[in-house]
């Protein structure tokens, strides 16, 4: 059946500017993300640097503006000095987080080359697990100082005379998790993070620092961890991180499959962002600070399977190689909607991860396929720009077990006053009902609706594979006709639709 809905857009009714850094990725030394993912010298497709043009092209189309590296749990046992100098001399080590072997053939210089090629801002995590505050400061010295000191001269000797100027620095990773190598309680972590930030800034006062928030809402320490860490670090940080993964069922819960609730996930994403933003506000008041701290959602994605035991001290083990479904793609679309709806607070976000490990791209030596979740990510990162609009939506609702009554329609929109380009992103969450949606531009009608795309299917569990790489993809559709500032389009059940516009 088909039901009706209306959406009102107004280019003057603005949530906030959109930080381009919400379109970020995360590359960890984990499984086949780095090795056999972005760095695959044994592949017949690899270039002389070990990068594969097919992987690079798929990554470039995602238009990532920031890339977090090198972990993740990996970083809490990582010695960055292992990854520099002649490759033949670099040590092989046990990577304790993932029970694998780290060859160190890919390190700081290789990552910077990769980031430069992608034209993406690097975001480095320092090791606050086994690492010292001195190691963290040494890394800033190595990456960012002009030559003339021990580590900056070493960088020049290793082939890069100019400072890299890495701006974004994560003060450890998920230090609230008992699984973390060198896990600390909130007070001990906050104190170490402050001392690390002080030393790192003495090296380079222009850097931006990010403190660890809770790894997920299921942590017994959530949100107390966040309150304590924020109060103690507030004056030393620019961003506060949050991590969250979902699934149907959620990996952290013993719940049964519940598709209607899963397809309403952005209700929870919105709420989670607001909770952490409230903790940030509280810390600002508590510390009498005048500055703001942004939210850095630097790990987010759909995740189902257990990691444990898969890696058995092998190089590049196949771990966490999720294959995503249509319903996962609709949830990823809603996650990106949350980033737009909360654009005033979410200032950085990184999908975890970028290749093979819980990722939008799956590779093997002779090729790759794009996962279902690739498509919404590409749509948002290519078309959402300028301001996020405060959208008014009137749509039918349905009852979900987890979130009560939820709108069938999730909509966000952007408008860039600099270019006149607009975009609307619409998810029909219903598994059975089509929605006929009338979109109205309230202040000024666009000159034209320029393009439209739609991703849909009958089976929420449909996936892509090497054999059927485009079983679930996004197709261009004809943009609807524009009539006196309104347009009507039909959204099939289980669908994601994008509509772009041009304004004078
Ligand atoms: O992204 C996979 C892992 O998830 C990261 O290493 C860790 O930070 C999180 O628990």
Automatic annotation (TrEMBL):
Cleavable signal peptide: none
Pfam families found in the cross-reference section: Alpha-L-AF_C, ASD1_dom
Keywords for this protein: Carbohydrate metabolism, Glycosidase, Hydrolase
Domain named Alpha-L-arabinofuranosidase C-terminal: residues: 298-495
Domain of life the protein comes from: Bacteria
Presence of keyword Hydrolase: yes
InterPro entries listed in its UniProt record: Alpha-L-AF_C, ASD1_cat, GH, Glyco_hydro_b
EC number(s) on file: 3.2.1.55
Catalytic activity entry: Hydrolysis of terminal non-reducing alpha-L-arabinofuranoside residues in alpha-L-arabinosides
UniProt cross-references to PANTHER family, sorted A to Z: ALPHA-L-ARABINOFURANOSIDASE C, ALPHA-L-ARABINOFURANOSIDASE C-RELATED
Family: Belongs to the glycosyl hydrolase 51 family.
Subunit: Homohexamer; trimer of dimers.
Protein name: non-reducing end alpha-L-arabinofuranosidase
Source organism: Deinococcus rufus
């Amino acid at each position: 059946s088909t039901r009706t809905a209306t959406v009102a857009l107004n280019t003057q009714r603005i949530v906030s500017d959109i930080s381009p850094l919400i379109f970020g990725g995360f590359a960890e030394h984990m499984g086949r993300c780095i090795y056999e993912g972005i760095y695959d010298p044994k592949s017949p497709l690899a270039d002389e640097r070990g990068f594969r043009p097919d992987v690079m092209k798929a990554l470039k189309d995602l238009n990532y503006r920031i890339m977090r590296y090198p972990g993740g749990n990996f970083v809490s046992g990582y010695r960055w000095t292992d990854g520099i100098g002649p490759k033949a001399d670099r040590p092989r080590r046990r990577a304790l987080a993932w029970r694998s072997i780290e060859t160190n053939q890919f390190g700081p210089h290789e990552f910077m080359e990769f980031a430069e090629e992608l034209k993406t801002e690097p975001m480095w995590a320092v090791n606050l697990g086994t690492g010292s505050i001195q190691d963290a400061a040494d890394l800033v010295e190595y990456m960012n100082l002009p030559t003339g000191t021990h580590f900056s001269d070493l960088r020049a000797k290793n082939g890069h005379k100019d400072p890299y100027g890495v701006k974004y620095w994560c003060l450890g990773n998920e230090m609230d998790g008992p699984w973390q190598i060198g896990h600390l309680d909130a007070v001990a972590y906050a104190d170490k993070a402050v001392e690390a930030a002080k030393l790192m800034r003495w090296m380079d006062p222009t850097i931006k620092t990010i403190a660890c928030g809770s790894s997920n809402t299921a942590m017994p320490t959530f949100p107390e961890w966040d309150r304590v860490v924020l109060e103690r670090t507030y004056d030393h940080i620019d961003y506060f991180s949050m991590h969250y993964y979902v699934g149907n069922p959620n990996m952290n819960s013993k719940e049964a499959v519940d598709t209607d609730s899963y397809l309403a996930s952005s209700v929870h994403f919105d709420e989670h962002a607001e909770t952490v933003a409230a903790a940030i506000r509280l810390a600002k008041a508590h510390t009498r600070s005048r500055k703001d701290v942004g939210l850095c959602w630097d790990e987010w994605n759909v995740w189902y399977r257990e990691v444990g035991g898969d890696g058995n001290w092998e190089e590049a083990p196949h771990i966490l190689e999720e294959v995503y479904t249509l319903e996962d793609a609709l949830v990823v679309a809603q996650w990106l909607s949350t980033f737009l709806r909360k654009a005033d607070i979410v200032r950085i976000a990184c999908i975890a991860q970028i290749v093979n490990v819980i990722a939008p791209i799956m590779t093997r030596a002779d090729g790759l396929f794009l996962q279902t979740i690739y498509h919404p990510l590409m749509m948002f990162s290519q078309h959402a720009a300028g301001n996020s609009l405060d959208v008014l939506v009137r749509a039918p609702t349905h009852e979900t077990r987890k979130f009560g009554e939820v709108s069938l329609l999730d909509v966000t929109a952007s408008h860039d006053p600099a270019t006149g380009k607009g975009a609307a992103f619409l998810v029909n969450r219903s598994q059975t009902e089509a929605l006929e949606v009338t979109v109205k531009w309230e202040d000024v009608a666009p000159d034209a609706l320029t393009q439209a795309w739609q991703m849909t299917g009958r089976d929420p569990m449909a996936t892509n594979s090497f054999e059927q790489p485009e079983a679930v993809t996004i197709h261009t559709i004809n943009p609807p006709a524009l009539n006196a500032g309104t347009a009507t389009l039909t959204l099939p059940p289980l669908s994601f639709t994008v509509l772009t516009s041009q304004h004078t």
